[in-house]
């Protein structure tokens, strides 16, 4: 099932997500549906709040970035209850977009390297050190679990310049090539 993607201004995108347990109803189907939604929307990551669920669940497939960054090759993950446990002081500037903020792409500083701990769909714990696009995508998606979107990382000036576009988006004035919901 392809879910509609919740758009900037939706209350659920500002909620702090709750951890989930193995008895979460129909979790394998939800994970499958999230991947299907992400692919149908041409995304490389999708967090549960983006489909209206305030739970700590993220799906990622950074493989399309492998042409520019070999570390992204085969980087496909399900992350349940993820947390960043370490991040580098060195930050890098990279361009980001978001399925929940269609049509807006901006340069964002984020730590160059992170270590993330999470459970996979089999409830096995993992701890991974990430760099490049995988680190970027994980940080972007985990922000959603804390009620943040990438535009929150922009300078005051950039936010001011985007205020009208974001305001219009919150009122339903935007274009997206995939199913959305306000």
Structural class call reads alpha+beta
The CATH architecture name reads: Alpha-Beta Complex
Helix tally?
A: 3
- Strand percentage lies at 25-35%
Radius of gyration: 16 Å
Mind describing the biggest β-sheet? 5 strands, antiparallel
Order of helices and strands: EHEEEEEEEHHE
Shape: globular
How many independent structural domains? 1
CA-CA gap between termini: 19 Å
Strand order of the largest sheet: 2-3-4-7-8
| CATH topology-level name | Peptide Deformylase
Set out the fold topology.
Layout: E1 5-6, H1 27-40, E2 45-47, E3 57-61, E4 76-87, E5 91-98, E6 101-111, E7 113-119, E8 125-131, H2 132-145, H3 156-170, E9 180-181
Parallel strand pairs: 1-9
Antiparallel strand pairs: 2-3, 3-4, 4-7, 5-6, 7-8
Explained architecture:
With 182 residues, the protein is of the alpha+beta class. The protein has a single domain (5-181), classed as Alpha-Beta Complex (Peptide Deformylase), CATH 3.90.45.10. It is 24% helix and 31% strand. It contains three helices and nine strands. The chain has helices at 27-40, 132-145, 156-170, and strands at residues 5-6, 45-47, 57-61, 76-87, 91-98, 101-111, 113-119, 125-131, 180-181. The strands form three sheets. Strands 2-3-4-7-8 form a five-stranded antiparallel β-sheet. It has a two-stranded parallel ribbon with strand order 1-9. A hairpin with a 5-residue loop joins strand 7 and strand 8. The longest helix is centred in the C-terminal third of the chain and has 15 residues, at 156-170. It is globular, with a radius of gyration of 16 Å.
């Amino acid at each position: 099932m392809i879910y509609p993607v919740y758009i900037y201004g939706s209350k659920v995108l500002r909620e702090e997500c709750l951890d989930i347990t193995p008895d979460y109803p129909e979790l394998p189907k939800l994970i499958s549906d999230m991947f299907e939604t992400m692919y149908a929307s041409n995304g490389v990551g999708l967090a549960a709040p983006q489909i209206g669920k305030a739970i700590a669940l993220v799906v990622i497939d950074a493989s399309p970035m492998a042409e520019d960054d070999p570390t992204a090759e085969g980087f496909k993950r399900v992350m349940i209850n993820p947390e960043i446990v370490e991040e580098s002081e060195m930050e890098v500037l990279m361009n980001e977009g978001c399925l929940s903020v269609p049509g807006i792409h901006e340069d964002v500083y984020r730590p160059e390297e992170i270590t993330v701990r999470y459970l996979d769909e089999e409830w096995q714990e993992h701890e991974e050190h990430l760099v490049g696009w995988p680190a970027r995508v994980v940080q972007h998606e985990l922000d959603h679990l804390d009620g943040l979107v990438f535009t929150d990382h922009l300078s005051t000036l950039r936010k001011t310049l985007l205020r009208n576009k974001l305001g219009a988006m919150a009122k339903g004035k935007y274009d997206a090539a995939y199913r959305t919901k306000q």
